[in-house]
Each structure stands twice: as structure tokens, then as C-alpha cells.
Amino acid sequence: MAEVRDTRVCIAGLGAIGQVIARELDQGRIPGLRLSAVSGRDKAKTTAFVSTLRQPVSMVELHELSDHGDIIVECAPAALLSQIAEPVLARQKKLIVLSVGALLSNPHLRQAALDGGSAILVPTGALLGLDAVLAAAEGKIHSVRMITRKPPKGLLGAPFLIDNNISVDNLTEPLKVFSGTAREAAKGFPANLNVAVALSLAGIGPDLTVLEIWADPTVTRNTHRIEVDSDSARLSMTIENIPSENPKTGVITARSVIALLRKMSAPLRIGT
Questions:
Q1: What is the pTM of this model?
Q2: 68 belongs to the catalytic site
């Protein structure tokens, strides 16, 4: 009988999310998958992290990840998505994307996946109800609205705030800092609003999905409220995510990727 080889997983980016996923794989907690390679921006920090793992793992450049894995998980800054994705898709590997907003500014990647017979996978991330939105989109969705509230420090450095001279320092009450479409939010808040783009791609698109963003000193969790009106259901959902070490993203984001990886090889798969 031929030996069954574990599916190799590579991780691009070793921030708060990438490290959690790497450790889960290294501990052997996802049957059929193993961590084979990582790529981190800071070589010294990457080396130090890899030295804490149980199993040997290659450290490679971003463009080399597709040489070392069957599934590549992108946990890097949005600006690097194309650099990571193009060689992966050209080699017919699977790509899990967390910088979902960057897919809007790199439309060629969808065509590359189609041409190469590969796949781009977007995990649910810090959102909820995507299965229901996908189902509703099989009929007619009339409107999708999302209201996001974050502790002010989770929005620091967002290009939209800088370009519009909006300060979120020393707030004593909630401040609405943005109102517009998911496409506009992806440009103005590339590290914060990947959830809005995922919602838009599941539903009626980034130009019809409307969004409000609030810097709210009264909350300690990243909060998203989603309202969907369709011909099959009216959805109203709220999720409060505990921030990770990186206040721009939630703890549940890494766990969503882990759940997706587990589902890919599971004999019983729940959800759309």
C-alpha cells in the first residue's frame, strides 16, 4: 500500500495570526496537514519563532512558498498579496487569503486562479453569517449594511484617517469616522475591514455593500453588526470579537483559518 503523504501547508506572514496557525499545525492538531515552510518579514524574529517549533520547518522567501507547500496561507500585509499569490496560483496550489480587501485591487488574481485551475479560499474570519448571505445571494438580496465599532487604538494608522486628518486619540465618546462602500473601506482601512469585503463578495458586491465605521472608546471588542434584506430572509447579526495581540484583528480570525484547514480534509463538513 502506498504511503499517504500529509498535505503541506506554508504560511506567509508570522504576525499574531500566522503564529497561532503555525503552532496549531506544528502540534499536529489538524489531521492530514503539516507545516512545511514559513516566510516572515523580519528574519531574526522568524528564526527565533521557528526555533520554538517541534518539527523542522523551512524559512523561505515569499515567492518560494509554492515550491514547499500544497496550501499557502496568506497572513501578510495587504500590499504583498499579489507577490504571494501569483506564483501559488500559477502552480495550481490552493491559496487561503486573509487580506481580502486586496483582492479588489488585484482582480487579475481571480482570473489567474481560473486559468491555472487553482483556488482562492476566503475564510469567514472575524465575521458571522457568511453561509446565510451566500445562500441568500442565490436569490435576490435587496441591501447589505454593516456597522463596525472598534476601540480607537484598533484604527490607528488607517490611511483614511491620515488622509482626512481624523484623530481618534483621547476620544471620550463614539466618533463615526467613515461612511461609504465596502470597496472604499478596503482602500481606506486595509488592515481593519477585510470582513466588510468578505461580506460584499458573499453578497451583492463591494459597491453596493454599505458600511459605517466608528471609533468607540466605550467598547473593548471589535464589533460588527450586519443587516441583510433579501427575498428569502431578513438577517440581523452582531459579533463582538476579542482583539488579538494585534488590536486591528480578532482572536477568532486565526481560529477561522484553522477551522477551514480542518474542514478541507474532514469526512463530515458542516456549512455551505
A1: 0.91
A2: no
